[in-house]
Every structure is written in structure tokens, then in C-alpha cells.
Amino acid sequence: VLLLVDKVLRDDGMDKEAVHDVVLVGGSTRIPKIQELITDYFGGRAPIGPIADGALARGAAVMAALLCEDPSVKLQPLILLDVMPISVGVETAGGVMAKIVERDTTLPTKKTCTFGTHLHNQTKVLIQVYEGEGTMTAENNLLCSFYLKGIKPASRGQHIQVTFDIDTNGTICVDAQRQTDYQHISANVNNLFRVGLEHPPDADAVLAYCD
């Protein structure tokens, strides 16, 4: 439990001394030992309660009031932002995860990274989209794979642009293109499909680096 609390504070760049109030939500928070651990962790400050049963409903009511813009409802100024819950990116040579959109990025967002072909005379590139925080793709979750084909043979390092376009609903559209060849392909990650992917995938058709 405390490891998770540590992680949340660390991700937000906060010290526990900066936390004024603690609200426990969820069935497990009724366990006396958990309440004791949280109280001790925050220097003896007991969590606010008991509102565990109504906390989610209250939050939903506040969200509804903000969306409706009801002038009769008086609320403290709040800014609610949609953010990415987890980083997404593509696999590069050696199984390295190249993050294109980092976790907690405000949505909607559109980001492009430039990669390079891994081999001389490479005619196709395998785009494998992953989610996760690991530095290696083996530690993360594969979302979809597809090939960008029809690349004209040339020396290694030919630029391939990969763009992630994510809307406020978290729908991810991935676009890969080689501009000089006018070759390009797009995939909607939420469909979790694979476009033209052989089994097993071609190990030579990988991306080499990220700018």
C-alpha cells in the first residue's frame, strides 16, 4: 500500500509533507490496518472520513456540474484535463522502447518522431506500437503492428516519420511515412489489428533510432 502511495507522490513530484488532507476511497480502506498505515505515513494525520461510499458519487456530481456549466452551482475554480494514463511509443532496434507520447501528457495531442532504417537497401519498416513505462518493449504491452512498405532501396538511416495523434477519448491514430517515396500508412490502435504482418515478423525491417 505504502509503495503505491510513494509512487503516486513521486510521479507528481510531491513530498508527503505537502499533502494537507487524505481521503480514503475503496472497500479495502475500511481495513483498520490500512487506515493505521496511512495515518502513520502522513505523520499522524488521520484520513478524512468516513466518506468512502460517497466520494466517487460526489466527484461525479462535481464533474457533471462543470460539464453542464450550471450557473446555479457554485464550485471552486477547477481545471479538469484529460491526460494519457500510460506512455506509448514504438520499438526500435534491439527491442528498445522509443516513447513518443509520455504518460500524463495533456490530451488531445499530436507528436512526431523521426526514425531511420536499420539496414542498407531496406524496403519496408515494421512499426510495432507499445504502451508502458519500461525501457525495453519486452517489459511493455504490444498494441498493434503494421508494415510501411514500398520504400526505395537506399543506404541505412533513411528517415521515417512516425506520428501519434490522440484525441480526448484516448483514441490513438498512428501514421508512418517516408516522404521522399510518398509512402505512408495509418492505423487506429484502438482497433488492435495488425496490417500485413507476417508471422514471425521480419527481424530486419526495424527502426534504427529516434531523433
TrEMBL record:
InterPro entries to which the protein is assigned, alphabetical: ATPase_NBD, Heat_shock_70_CS, HSP70_peptide-bd_sf, Hsp_70_fam
Entries under SUPFAM superfamilies matching the protein: Actin-like ATPase domain, Heat shock protein 70kD (HSP70), peptide-binding domain
Organism of provenance: Vitrella brassicaformis
Name assigned to this protein: Heat shock protein 70
Superkingdom to which the source organism belongs: Eukaryota
UniProtKB keywords: ATP-binding, Nucleotide-binding
Gene Ontology MF terms: ATP binding; ATP-dependent protein folding chaperone
